[in-house]
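Appendix B. Chain record.
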Amino acid sequence: MTIYSPFETAVPVVVQAALLAAGLMMLAGVHVRRKLAAAGGGVVPDEGVTLRNVLEVLIEGLANLARDRIGEDWRSYFPIIATMFFFILLSNLMGLIPGVGGSTSDVNATFSWAVIAWVLYTWIGIAKHKGRYLIKYMGPKIAIKIFGRTLQLRLLALPMMIIEIPLDLARIGTLALRLLANMFADHVVIAVWVKLVPILVPAVFMGLGLVVAVLQAFVFALLTMIYIGLALDEPH
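Structure tokens predicted for this chain:
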């Protein structure tokens, strides 16, 4: 029994969980925006551990990673990467709460984000390099001398494309399954221990689950940044 059960027949659980995560993100954004709009809000940090301080630390860490992995154009792509990170993180954390659950325990959600990541970096690569983006699938140039002239040809282009394009598409599966497997297993373990020993013991697994939740959101965002950086590199 979860908070989604009353509406499960009308709206799939994964959709409800995703909408809840999106709603919480928007509420957090409005709250932080109001804090920043207040007098001195953009300069003076809050005292103690507050939502704004936590978000600023996470965003600053992500921004530094994006700058290192993507390069000078990182600001153009950071908003969607940050959105991806916080949605996955929040969904992971929701999965730790008994009776709530998060969308990242469902294959539909993890594959959806993986497809978004693939489409994003592929679109970025094509937008920058146009048709030359396909060169990255064609393998290395091979020097051949013909009539005294040295030509650089990609003789292995066809077999390399047959190999490289499926490997590129396989990133969707690796992104999705890594997130799904870790979060599904983590949430199942916690649920089992909550039922077996509802006092003290589940707290240990909750702590481990918190680490896993943050780590998996971080890994997903980091891999997306790396793929974007590779897409921006000059094809050769």
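Further analysis of this model is presented in Appendix C.
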